[in-house]
Structure prediction request, 335 residues.
Amino acid sequence: MNNKDEIKTIDPRGLEHHEKEKLIFPSIEDLSKGDSLRIVMEFNPVPLVYLLKTRGEFEVFYEKDGPDEWILVVKRIAAEEMKKEKLEALVQKLKSGNISEETKARTKELFQAADAKSIGEMEQKLIKQGIPRETILGNLCDIHLEILRDKLVDQKVEVESPHPVHSFMEEHKVILESLSALKTTLDKLRKAKSFKKFGPGLEKLRDSAHHLVEAESHHQREEESLFTKLEDHDITEPVAVMKSDHVEFRERKQALYQLAYNPKDYDFESFKTRCVELGEYLVEELESHIFKEDNIIYQVALQTLSEKEWEVVKRECDKIGYCCFTPQDQIEKSD
Prediction:
């Protein structure tokens, strides 16, 4: 166990976002009960604090709160030992490569009951059993996210119309419906052997692509109004990640739209391959992006921005304009 003078310190300043994550999260997960970690940041890590407090396993406090650097101290306060027989069963399931929903549920239960040391030992054992590291990270990270999803959703703060966050989240529901329809259409496209066999699926593809492109004003309002206010509060890193996602989404949504409305420019197999590639990316990544915004970014914003700042955000959103699918009660103009 660490004493006060032996707290490990990590300094991810200057690293790219994904490099920061690779340093910060394993270091946190490696903490045993009673151990602490000092994290030095060049910006206020508000989302990280929110996530850690949500998990209920850590004490978190600022040793230094800006303005040039922020030093966060994280102490693990809860940990339990994983049962070996359950671990052995998990090893065999993962080794088979058949990751069923039941296996995910059992693994989720183990994660909720395990400390970081146990999880680390589990990962090492899986590797020694011959399971590729990519398989381990992919499946276990997905399950870990599911655990976090439950806790975040349970603690989500709700606001009413026409608050900007409520508008964003209602638009997200419509976007998710479009992604669900797109996923169904892609399943049919995979089975089709020609444009003729795809038939009415083309019109459904166009409808989904149209709604996704129409979401541009949603992203614009986030970037030019909400995100700028968060940046004013030194919440810059997560905002930069969301903006980067938007760039990727724009490129792929436009490409899918062009395919859907100009199918005869391609032979069917090329059309199908490209549509599936673009569509799968959008379904998976945009769904994940929306979850992060609804349950992390917006929640941090609700805890950070003042009432007057929200009034400014609302006016700016009104000025930019809304999507064709934004519910009418969400676009009530501010005075």
